[in-house]
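Lecture notes, continued. The same structure-token format from the folding unit now serves as the input rather than the output. Read the line below as a description of shape only.
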């Protein structure tokens, strides 16, 4: 199988890899770059557990082919911490009890991060609408919404 050369930035690192044309970004992140924060659950774009931010847009990495991110800047949950300090969203998720099993959490946080990056003061309705496409089976969403509201006050 012919492979392709792909270069992109993930968090603070520039990465160049030879990839198969059908390799997904989720596979690349988890299996080749050991960035396992993005989770594989449905593997078909339904749950949001694999969400990462690509050029400012939250994307389901199980649906993105790695050759498509050539030249892109990708942020994963591993890239949120700055100078040994957690991102305000990470702090707020812990403080508000918005994490139970944790399987949805990194995807939820990355979706919320993209929202706060483009809208620093979202309304509760905007938060609910934004995160509603990410599935959480544990929390009932209330604590997650509270955590995003709390983080918005700190960013
Ligand atoms: S694992 Fe990608 S959307 Fe569910
Ligand atoms: S905390 Fe378990 S799925 Fe959300």
């Amino acid at each position: 199988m012919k492979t392709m050369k792909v270069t992109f930035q993930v968090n603070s690192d520039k990465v160049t890899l030879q990839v198969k044309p059908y390799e997904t970004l989720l596979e690349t992140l988890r299996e080749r770059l050991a960035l396992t924060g993005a989770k594989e659950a449905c593997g078909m774009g339904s749950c949001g557990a694999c969400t990462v931010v690509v050029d400012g847009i939250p994307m389901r990495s199980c649906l993105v082919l790695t050759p498509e991110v050539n030249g892109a800047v990708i942020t994963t949950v591993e890239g949120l911490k700055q100078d040994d300090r957690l991102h305000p969203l990470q702090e707020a998720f812990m403080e508000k009890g918005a994490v139970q099993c944790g399987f949805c959490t990194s995807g939820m946080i990355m979706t919320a991060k993209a929202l706060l990056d483009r809208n620093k003061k979202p309304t509760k309705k905007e938060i609910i609408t934004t995160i509603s496409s990410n599935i959480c089976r544990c929390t009932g969403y209330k604590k997650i919404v509270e955590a995003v509201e709390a983080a918005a006050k700190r960013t």
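Point for the exam: Residues 4-79 form a domain with the Ubiquitin-like (UB roll) fold (CATH 3.10.20.30).
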